[in-house]
Write a structure and sequence with these properties.
It contains one helix and seven strands, in the order E-E-E-E-E-E-H-E. It has about 80 residues and is mainly beta. The longest helix has 5 residues.
Length: about 80
């Protein structure tokens, strides 16, 4: 796989759930933050967040539904549970 890797930081005492959606974003549950390749921490403020995998969102790392227009089904982003 090429592209970005985001590490999902779990809530204390919880496990992160990562669920890719076919042709769309990856849904992340029970995370307090996502940390990108550069070490930048993106706080999570919702119980479930949609992470962009088409890499065309104007709100990276968050999905803004651009994939619906771009019709890009390839995933350039991997989200991994962190510790």
């Amino acid at each position: 796989m090429t592209g970005r890797v985001l590490r999902a930081v779990p809530r204390p005492g919880d496990d992160v759930s990562v669920s890719p959606c076919a042709g769309g974003p990856t849904l992340v549950r029970r995370a307090v933050a996502l940390v990108d390749d550069s070490g930048v921490e993106h706080p999570v403020e919702r119980p479930v967040v949609a992470v962009c995998t088409c890499e065309r969102s104007q709100r990276l790392p968050w999905c803004d539904s651009t994939h619906k227009v771009a019709r890009n089904t390839g995933s350039g982003v991997e989200v991994v549970p962190g510790t």
